[in-house]
Amino acid sequence: VLFILNGLERLNLDFRLAGTELCCDPNEPVPPSAIVVNLLRKYLLPEASIIVTTRPSAVRRIPGKYVGRYAEICGFSDTNLQKLYFQMRLSQPGCSGEGSTGRSSGEQENLVEMLSRNLERHNQIAAACFLPSYCWLVCTTLHFLYFTRTVPPSQTLTGIYTSFLRLNFSGEVLDSTDSTNISMMKYVAKTVGKLAYEGVMSRKTCFTEDDLQQCFEVEMKTESELNLLEVFRSDVFRFFLTPCVQLGKEHTFVFTIPAMQEYLAALYVVLGEKKTLAQRVGKELSELIGKVSEDVAVVLSIVSKVLPLRFLPVLFNLLKIFPRYFSRLSGKDRDAIAHTMAEELFKEEDYYNDDVLDQINSSILGMEGPMRHPDEVPDDEVFELFPIFMGGILSRRNRAILQQLGCSIKNLAAFEIANAMKKTVIRNSRKGLPPSELMDYLFFLHEFQNERFTAEAIRSLRTVNLSSVKMTPLKCSVLAYVMGTTCHEVEELNLTSCNLDTSSLRILFPVLLRCKALHLQLNSLGSDACKEIRDLLLHDKCVVSNLRLANNPVGEQGAQYLAEALAGNHSLTHLSLLHTTLGDRGAEVIAQHLAKNQHLQELNLGYNSLTDTAALHVVEVAKKHATLDKVHLYFNDISEDGKRELDSLRMDRDGVRALVFLTAGTDVSDYWSNILNVVQRNLPFWDRERVRQHLVLILQDLESSRRQTANPWRKAKFLRVESEVKKMLGKLQ
């Protein structure tokens, strides 16, 4: 028989004969502790094998004569074992959720490869993954970042860290022999949390031994408190803090996982541990006076009935003043927590960092590209997860888990903090945030898990600009969930250059329906994505009036889907298909369906390799359209003859403006600045040589038209436009 006794530190065993009697009969009824002691004495079932697990501080509770062998379980001493764990865990079938495809399998292999490369660099993550439980945390975080495709996301980042702590510390008391019986997690929040918070406030991640001594307040502790600290340093310290592996910082400590510093700092603040000495004394004094006043009040109420003395009611009320006054001060603490959250969430120095999800991804998988030179000055530390974790800890589910860990956050406290946040967080969010910071704000609302608060915050967001944010499936799910808490229309949603694909559009479909102006430029959206856009535009609840799809490989098949959408849509007034590789056939398909549309006012088909025939066909159809009055056709392969024919189709004669060149006969086109602005914005994304050829032709055309006019005012206009074109050519060269 093999007995495995897990967690000896929870048992207070007495090996003295006077304390625990001898017992060799398995059938004899004795207390559980006596059974364990006699098993370890080898007096009961002497042939049985026994394995005992314990924290280091409790090892000596069993006399050495009863122990045959000691073994310390350290972790993954071999990096290859770490890699094997990651490979097995990240390659599990179905780990990418429903609809797992070959592409997801390739993504899993890519994750394993990137993680392995980062481990080989012998940086801090390799030291962290020495502990198997941190390997679990890394894999769970990667699953969350890469394989979340549900709306709302099935879990939160704060929930992952809270669950991780529950897995390791659920039911754990720091020292079972101590009368305070303080939970392990509560002690960690009070001590390590303070260190973490001080580090966040001073923007540092490395801590010296002096920093530790100061935060643990060693000089102010009693003997019993020092004993608790000794148990903590023996059993738990290395779990949260580890020696730094960076050159020149060998004698300092860092948090094993960087994000854990921000989580514990957030927990420290939300639990109300961040107090001044006056606040701590005030709380204790308030509780004492409160208890005394209850007893005195009972006596005074009896005496006042017998002896009607006038001063007794006054004395009675005076006893209640201090507790009431302190309760008001504690209400100010809630405001302070909300103020700290808002201040950290909207720090202007963090406005142009990557969003927090990309930061976490980089911390686990490393940065792609050349490594930093050891002598190079490192960037300033960023702590943007700190306020997000504060919001996440206040969610109902995380508060329930923390309650099990001995860290109680009352419902009333969470309610008061949420109310205080309305004054600070929502007000600050209305100032207009950069795209990455706005993504952080949306992620904060997701982590907070308070739909009523989120709905109130989102109603004030009429314009959502996330341009250049890499919109992973997780970020799309977060955006869809947060925006889904209300039904209001969004004036503008800018998703330019966001790495969107067909699955992203599918996740965001309910949000896109409510957007009046929708910017989807520079996203590599092909024909499959256009099929989703067709379904969007044909939906009876669609309110999209301005759709920009510039610089996407729409192609002929994509044009077919968009043409079908145009025929049945009733909301779209502006459509930009600039540089979408339509070709003549794509433009012809769109022209064929334009007649069925009754609302379009402006159509941009510039830079699509259209020839004279296709361009003239589009304009001929546009002439007969009820509302379409502007068609952009610049940077296409239109000949001089085609230009003259298009130029003859004047607005005052045929009812449509065709924007083809910068000239209009012997005058400058009214839209020359519009055309040049479009070219200027798109120079980084277009074929440089082809743009140069077009600009040379435009310059020649301007010079020719200038020579033909005798009007000095017009000549001056031509010279001004020519100078702008020459500047662009200079930049290209």
Automatic annotation (TrEMBL):
Q: Which residues form a coiled coil?
A: none
Q: Please tell me whether the keyword Repeat is annotated for this protein.
A: yes
Keywords on record = ATP-binding, Leucine-rich repeat, Nucleotide-binding, Repeat
Where does the record place the NACHT domain?
Answer: 1-86
On the tree of life, the source organism's domain of life is Eukaryota
Q: Name one GO molecular function term.
A: ATP binding
* The species this protein was found in: Aptenodytes forsteri
Q: Which residues form the NLR family member X1 C-terminal domain?
A: 668-729
Protein name, as recorded = NLR family member X1
| InterPro entries xref list | Leu-rich_rpt, LRR_dom_sf, NACHT_NTPase, NLR, NLRX1_C
